[in-house]
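This section describes the prediction task in plain terms. A model, or a person checking by hand, is given the sequence of a single protein chain and must write out its three-dimensional structure as a string of tokens. No templates, partner chains or ligands are provided. The sample shown here is typical of the held-out split.
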Amino acid sequence: MDYILIAGSKLQISAAQAVPWGMNYDYLVIGHGLAGAILTCFLEKSGKTVLVIDAPKENSASRVAAGLINPVAGKRFAKSWQVDAFLPAAAAFYQEMEERYQTNLFFRKPILKLFSNPEEQNNWMGKSTDAAWDGYIETTHLQLPPSDSVHQELGGLLIHQGGYVALRTFLDAHQADLQSRGLYRAETFDFSRLELLPEGVRYADVQARKIIFCEGAQGAQNPFFSWLPFSLNKGEILDINVPDFEASYIYNKAVYVVPLGQYHYRVGATYNWRNLEEQLTPEAREELSAKAGDILKKPFAVEKQYVGIRPAVRDRKPLVGQHPNHPQVGIFNGMGSKGVLMAPLLAQQFISALEHETPLWPEVNIARYLSLYLASTPNT
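The expected answer:
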């Protein structure tokens, strides 16, 4: 075995993974956002050789997101889809990455979901007796005592098993790991240089058994998968400073307020399907500031604003699978705002499907959109 040092930790790399530059690989992974990085981790863990090609982008959705893990979805107090399966797999993965890179990545924090009005209280009370919530809702407060720091008079839910992942830290550590082994190329993928072979693909000086596209929002322009119903949306978030306030919770009421330590918080997020220009807007800053003010009583200063485009999908489920006519070409995308929670388990399921032909969940399999593909290619 060979050993390398990354961020002070000792990593064991099998001989099968130490592939010289320009040789054959099992997989080409295009994109190194959250989806691409996690898929690559599990491919290597399963003993596959991988080369990642990525055009680094500071404002990719993965790099600007808060990395929130929340078992409760939306205003209707719905349980996040498949959270019972996703959450243990996600927690195990991020804990493993913490040990691997010897740094804090996964921050467990309860979420205080504050009620906005009596109707929300009633809506929740109608659902609270469902045993499906066992293990997720720690307590229900129909009223909380007045606070000098937070508007919480209408009460709320204290959600167990919440938290956030420091995505930028994880992506930087994993990229450095790949670069140290010659398994990362920082370049824009050029489709004109891709050749499909009977048993794989060739790209420039590289051959691989399969190529998997994990391009995030760019996936909507991918010529192999342009028929998939991406519903891209623009999100903006703020980093704020709240002097003399260190919260024990992640707060959620219309927006989230995530404590990052030392009086720093992240506030998000906006959703804009109409304007997909990757430019900061004063409207988003005003909206987020106003909604943060609906949660925080203390004055705060905006330190930074971020923008990114989410690779969301019409039915709000990920896009996972192999091209209908080219099984050596796959996609792992469309995670939207839930990628931190979903990607670890879905990556494992996808690799099992690629290597052992085990079925994917129909809700994520791109085969659910086969009719769109056939309509776009009438002569196939």
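For orientation: The longest helix spans residues 83-101.
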